[in-house]
Design a protein that fits this description.
Layout: H1 2-14, H2 34-48, H3 55-58, H4 64-75
Helix pairs in contact: 1-2, 1-4
Length: 79
Amino acid sequence: MIFEKLAALLAEQFSVEADSITMETTFEDLGADSLDIVELSMALEEEFGVEELAEEELSNISTVADLVRYLNRKLGEDE
């Protein structure tokens, strides 16, 4: 499932425990700045095979749930 892979990726990227990440976790909660988001975007590209997030897409993503929905749409999977 996307959430588990994403939680593991976020945990590694932001040096937090994967089980501390929920669908409601915000990138602010993780202490992410704009550089972190760019790095995350590149990691998502590698992990999930999606293109780098466009700036307008990033502006709509503030929680892990938003990112899961985005990845589901990009990958054509059900939530």
